Amino acid sequence: MTVRIKLWDLPTRVFHWLLLALVTASFITGWTGGNAMEWHGRAGITIIGLLSFRLAWGLIGSTHARFSRFVRGPAAIAGYLRGGWIGVGHNPLGALSVLAMLALLLCQALGGLFANDDIAYNGPYFNAISKNLSDWITGWHKRGAWLILGVIGLHLAAILYYTHVRKETLIQPMLTGTKEVPETLAGESARGGSALALVVALVLGFAACWAASGVLLEKAPVVQTIQTTAPATKPAANAGW
Length: 241
What we know:
Blueprint lengths: L1 E5 L3 H23 L3 H25 L6 H4 L3 H8 L10 H21 L18 H34 L6 H6 L1 E5 L12 H21 L26
Antiparallel strand pairs: 1-2
Helix pairs in contact: 1-2, 2-5, 2-8, 5-6
């Protein structure tokens, strides 16, 4: 017997698909370059806001969205590898990939705030550091893109493995929010994640976007110097004795 339980809440699902869209847009605009770099920067700033929301939601959201629910220690991971884990949501090993993805994307987006393309685009906080440091960060920003692609590849491979080998769907619950599970897991339906918690997480996300946009960078006042040319004066005549 199976029952249908609530697994992923709406904020978690919206976050997941928005993040996918923004990461895709970041890769496309980054590789395109030129005028597209402005959109690359906007996507990065929005990603920072989304990740900030997810970090907050991981503390005050519904059951299976909380880090305390799915982040486990080495013993739980070893138990999962031996086939002894029974549950719903992220398994102990999958939790590591979630944390790795969030950490990599956050570092990548934060680095982009200080990066430059040596042509026309500078990150919102480019002027807060030296050009040499910005170039160094830019180099790692470019390398990080390949690392993120690798993690995404592993994520997709895991989805295919669970779908075709273990016959467990992962995509549908992220679309509908519900999942068919054995009757013994009926009590695992998600709870919590109040409207107030959602408002708090959204405020933190928007605040992170606002800060990432460069408003915290103190701008030196522009002093306009108006140079006037004084009229030439005739030299005074030598005074007689």
